[in-house]
């Protein structure tokens, strides 16, 4: 099992603290209202914060070997193509008309495309340009315990819109590369320090399998009692719980599995 760097948590505890110029209205936070804040320019050490939040500070470098993508730091202008992401675009096709999602299939999948609102098991890596180590990946999400797929619930907004749309274009067993425009990723502000402002994101995604349980996350709970008693509404919801229960059983999550039939 990969080991975590010694002293990481000590560094985390003693990390620089960002100080706001003014306090935040508590009512805005409680009521989930938008608010603005400003960080004092002298309140943190950008270099130390960036280092602390980097993958290298958490995982040993040898553990990250399979995650490293050296093509993202190769900026050879002599070939006439340009930046690393320009080279990726050269082999990709538009997934949508505005070109904000570009796709290249490196391994063909089988069967139908991933349905909306399903539970999908994926392996992925997410990179920004000129950074050879991903800012996020399946490996990191599993705390470095292996290259197992992880579940994503497409019915609950667990991923950025561009990745959601990209996954819906894929099939079981497919592996593909996507370049996603900031409008469909982390927006104009990004997510500092790991994701810069207006960053285009490279996602490398592989679909392990998916469970079509979309009707669980449909608007069944919002139906009237009379509508809930209609067979046309009951059957899809019951079938979705059944499929999800079977999937949990196969993964030996028996306690979770047995609750699904009762919910249906």
Automatic annotation (TrEMBL):
GO terms for MF: Hsp90 protein binding; peptidyl-prolyl cis-trans isomerase activity
Catalysed reaction equations from the record: [protein]-peptidylproline (omega=180) = [protein]-peptidylproline (omega=0)
Gene3D superfamilies, per the entry: 3.10.50.40
UniProt GO cellular component terms: cytoplasm
Domain PPIase FKBP-type: 117-211
Entry keyword Repeat: yes
Pfam families reported for this sequence: FKBP_C
Name of the featured protein: peptidylprolyl isomerase
């Amino acid at each position: 099992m990969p080991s975590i760097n010694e002293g990481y948590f000590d560094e985390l505890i003693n990390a620089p603290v960002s100080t706001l110029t003014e306090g935040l209205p508590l009512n805005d936070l409680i009521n989930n209202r938008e608010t603005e804040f400003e960080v004092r320019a002298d309140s943190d050490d950008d270099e130390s914060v960036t280092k602390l939040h980097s993958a290298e500070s958490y995982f040993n470098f040898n553990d990250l070997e399979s995650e490293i993508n050296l093509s993202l730091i190769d900026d050879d202008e002599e070939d006439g193509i340009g930046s690393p992401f320009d080279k990726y675009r050269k082999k990709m096709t538009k997934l949508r008309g505005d070109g904000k999602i570009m796709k290249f299939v490196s391994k063909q999948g089988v069967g139908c495309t991933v349905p909306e609102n399903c539970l999908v098991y994926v392996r992925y890596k997410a990179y920004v340009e000129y950074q050879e180590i991903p800012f996020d990946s399946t490996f990191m999400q599993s705390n470095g315990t292996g290259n197992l797929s992880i579940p994503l619930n497409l019915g609950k907004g667990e991923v950025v819109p561009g990745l959601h749309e990209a996954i819906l274009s894929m099939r079981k067993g497919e592996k593909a590369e996507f370049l996603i425009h900031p409008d469909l990723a982390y927006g104009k502000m990004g997510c500092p320090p790991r994701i810069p402002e207006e960053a285009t994101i490279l996602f490398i995604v592989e679909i392990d399998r998916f469970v079509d349980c979309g009707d669980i996350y449909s608007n069944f709970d919002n139906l009237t009692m009379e509508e809930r008693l209609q067979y046309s509404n009951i059957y899809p919801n019951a079938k979705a719980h059944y499929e999800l229960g079977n999937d949990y059983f196969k993964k030996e999550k028996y306690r979770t599995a047995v609750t699904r039939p009762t919910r249906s």
